[in-house]
Amino acid sequence: MIKFHIQPDSEIPSSTQLYDQLWFAIASRQFPPGYRLPSTRQLAMQTGLHRNTISKVYRQLEDAGVVEAQPGSGIYVRSQSTVDSSRPRLGLWDQFPKAREVVEGGLDELLRQGCSLNQARALFLAEIDWRLRCSASVLVTVPKQELGAGELMVRELEAALQIPVQLVPLEDLDTTLSQTRSGTVVTSRYFLAEAEAVAGPKSVRVIPIDIYDYGQELELLKQLPQGTCLGMVSLSSGILRAAEVIAYSLRGDDVVVMTSQAEDAYKLNAVVRGAQTIVVFDQASLPAVKQAIASAREDLIRPPQLVMCENYIGDKSINLLKRELGLEDG
């Protein structure tokens, strides 16, 4: 039974304190629909309030549509009450009509077992967190300094495989694998040895993938007129650093190179305004580039030419993963 506490020295009237506590018990479903409220005698013994005061509080709850009196039986929480109108609206309730019944039923059972609301929330969140970790059958791992490239891999793998993919920094891979029941680690061939050193002792397989070779973009770079300002945009700072080095090694000072990550609005705006050609290294960055061009259009004599790279992960690697994971069509 819930313990109600009345503070006699409070500025809040005792009847209001009891009303608020009863309302909360009903709203939080510690007193679920159909629950018989304690008798006035029981509450009087627990709180020290006069039974007439408690009867007055019960009448107030009845007037509010929260409870109903059943002559000769007692006071019961109504199955549909105005308390429901105070619940937060969640669109998922409409998407999953039976969800509220399932959630409320499970929570009511935990409360009947003596669990507090905070304890019930901790139990639900712990179970959800565990299932989310276990549901990621593919773990993409790259060093922390290359997380942008890892994010590209995750986006393309989720789209191609249609299963959850989790990005894990290589530095945190050991801890993650200790908490995951099963999984497949995916990484670039550049980081294969490091990933295998962590995953091997745990009997977790590591599959290397081949990254797009950017052959067409290299040919474009070689053919750019002298003095061209070339912009490069990607989610990955590592890709941009490598591309900048390659550009200078091939063209030296013949071509001016400007780079920006997609989320850096200041640098991206500078690239859009200064470059005649912009190479976008990943689909995820394309909307930001187009938006920046649209915003600067009035100031541009001629919009820059956009060159969109192919997918970061090659089709051969995607097909290999599908075979390894048993996801091939048919």
Structure write-up:
With 330 residues, this protein is α/β, with parallel strands linked by helices. It folds into four domains: 14-83, Arc Repressor Mutant, subunit A (Orthogonal Bundle), CATH 1.10.10.10; 92-132; 136-209, 3-Layer(aba) Sandwich (Rossmann fold); 215-308, Rossmann fold (3-Layer(aba) Sandwich), CATH 3.40.50.980. It is 48% helix and 14% strand. The chain contains 14 helices and ten strands. The protein has helices at 14-27, 40-47, 51-63, 91-95, 99-112, 117-135, 147-161, 173-179, 192-199, 215-223, 237-251, 265-274, 286-295, 315-325, and strands at 67-70, 74-77, 138-142, 165-169, 184-188, 206-209, 229-234, 256-261, 277-280, 305-308. The strands form three sheets. It has a four-stranded parallel sheet with strand order 4-3-5-6, with helices on both faces. The protein has a four-stranded parallel sheet with strand order 8-7-9-10, with helices on both faces. Helix 1 (14-27) packs across helix 3 (51-63), helix 2 packs across helix 3 and helix 12 (265-274) packs across helix 13 (286-295).
